[in-house]
Fold this protein.
Amino acid sequence: RAAMPAQLRSIRVSPFSTSTSRPAGRINHDVRITRTGKPILTVSAGRSSLGGYTATVFGATGFLGRYIVNRLARSGCTVIVPFREEMAKRHLKVAGDLGRVVFMEMDLRNTASIEESVRHSDIVYNLIGRDYPTKNFDLADVHVEGTERIAEAVAKYDIDRYVHVSSHSALLDSPSEFYRTKAQGEQVARSIYPETTIVRPAPMFGFEDRLLHRLASPSNVITSNWMQERFNPVHAIDVGMALEAMLHDDTTAAETFELYGPTEYTMAELNDLVEREAMKKRRHINVPKAIMKPVARYANKLLWWPIHSEDEVEREFIDQYIDPQAKTFKDLDIEPVELSSLTYEYLKGYRSSSYYDLPPMSEREKREEKKYLHVID
Ligand code: NDP
């Protein structure tokens, strides 16, 4: 090696080589110790990083799931994704390097399949939730019974960490069954596994959300509370970031986090924002709760695709409740983004094709604050 020219020597030593002749300091590696004293080796090497941890993410096939699976898998953690529908999980495969994302068939009523999914993990995330009752699962089945089975498996296999995603406004005496069952789920999780980290996200927005897109897609927006409910929408990517931070920070065990955005909106204010970005004015119809609830109840029995449920009508009358005792993004050193800074990104697809933006504005137009120029065919 001494006779080898210096230039050639630097080519032959790969930064990913495990050879003992590797120059010191080329690879950024670290050994972390989990809460129960297990050593975890992490090595950062781009897509081939070794995250060291094994994480199970229940409910990974939903909206929020991809934002945590993606973060874990790309940092080299092995991610176990329990799933029930083949097609619903496909997009997660490419989140990490080959073999990083492992799929396991699971049924919420099959304890053995839940245990199989958690037994080798260092952390378990439970993102399972449903906004409306379905034919086979009512809200308590999903939020309480399902949580109980998962928490029991976590306790049985002595998993280091359990992060339970609940909901904002989860209160035992809430008039909404969704919030009530979410609060019961939190209680059940804490009673079985006291170090459960509870995460209560505010209504989330993002590419696949049911907030901005639900306002932007229909031509008639039907509500019952004149869009007066108040909440602090939060970006799904921020919530994903917070969930990842919890893995690396054991002081978050046994804590409760309320994750909400910096600004409070009423649904009507959000609707104005959506209409401005989508450049569309939709008809708003307000149907009183006394009529809307029975209509939603019977429509849900007759139709086989999900539509606005009775409980969702009830939730329109409940403002977001933020527990002042709970921790927030601040405790994780994360600054949540402002919704209005991203609405253009998420809603530009709703604009009519007869509009397009002309090349950069002239100074005069800027002074006149003419943001977009519209040219109609
Ligand atoms: P989604 O509805 O998009 O995803 C829910 C996930 O739960 C899916 O993976 C779904 O699996 C799974 N799931 C639902 N029911 C069952 C069941 N019976 N058995 C097995 N799996 C089931 O939820 P989000 O990603 O939007 O939200 C994640 C969590 O955050 C949920 O618990 C939700 O209640 C909570 N939350 C969400 C908010 C939001 O604005 N989105 C606001 C506050 C809380 P499958 O794909 O197979 O159906």
